[in-house]
Task: structure prediction
Amino acid sequence: MIDITMDMEQYDCPFIDTTDDHAVGFSAIQWDFDRVNDQLETRMMVEGETREELSNGLSTLRNHDNMRDYKLLTRRDNVAHIRTVIGETDAMATIRDNGGYITGPFYIESGSEVWHVGFDGIGDADTTLAELERDNEYDVLERDNTELPEMQDFVQNAGAAMTLIEGCRDLSDVERETLETAVSDGYFENPRGATLGHLADEFDVSKPAVSKNLRRGQQKMIQRVVEALEELE
Result:
């Protein structure tokens, strides 16, 4: 399998057009392509820089010429969850016509989107990239030839990976920021590049407070690591 990550600009994509005009970003959490009607159904998380930017972005998206169906599912402050149906874009058609398929979630911001696309053969991948150049602009960020053993290992251990991701989501903002700063400043190195006092000053809290945040964050992550190790094939 040839796995390609690309930064794609599409001129007929409602999401890209919207991010060109408004400070919003779209993260796909579910997608399904209807081959009969040549349309893509998605469920997206939308985040605006502000509440106003989100409102303006959703209004622009809803009224786009290539938007076939739109529904606001939930909204809170500057984040929304939406369901959309759009017509097939030229880039989507090119990829599908050459046997390509989406292998991961896509993210759209500032007029372009990051795609993860797979192909069964090198020829299909090269042909698709050549055809995409005619009507689209893109940059290949990464290209990997995934061998069968690697693919099998990834599939078998997807559960362990999700366990680690859930561990990251379990962290509070303070715990995550404290762990990130501790790592970047060398707190866990030997000899230490930072002390508890240094971290306390960074966050303008007491040493016991920063120590508590560190311990809570470490405990959550270590528990998830142990669970992930148990799930590994």
Summary: The chain has two domains: 2-146, 154-231. Residues 104 and 217 are 28 Å apart (CA to CA).
